[in-house]
Amino acid sequence: MDHPPVTPPMPADYYRRHAARVRRLASEATTPAVKEHLQDVATQYENLAEHVEGFGGSADDDVADRGGR
């Protein structure tokens, strides 16, 4: 049985940038439920960044591996 290819995670900086963007959106939200949801999403992005870093690769290494910089 063939398994689909696994997409490698994005660099930690990618997830941290998105976390910061979502936090900015949360700070502008006027509905408590929306604000709470956006804060949860930002936390999930931070967790993803920590997970990527836990594999031993820095964000710069990941970008270089993808042909960036």
Word description of this protein:
- The protein has 3 helices and no strands.
- Helix 1 runs antiparallel to helix 2 (32-54).
- By secondary structure, the chain is mainly alpha-helical.
- Helix content is 68%, strand content 0%.
- The chain has helices at 12-28, 32-54, 59-65.
Short description:
By secondary structure, the chain is an all-alpha fold. The protein has three helices and no strands.
Number of helices: 3
Largest sheet: none
What is the 3D shape?
A: elongated
Number of strands: 0
Q: Kindly state the mean pLDDT as a whole number?
A: 82
Distance between the termini: 37 Å
Features:
0% strand; elongated
Secondary structure elements and pairings:
Elements: H1 12-28, H2 32-54, H3 59-65
Helix pairs in contact: 1-2
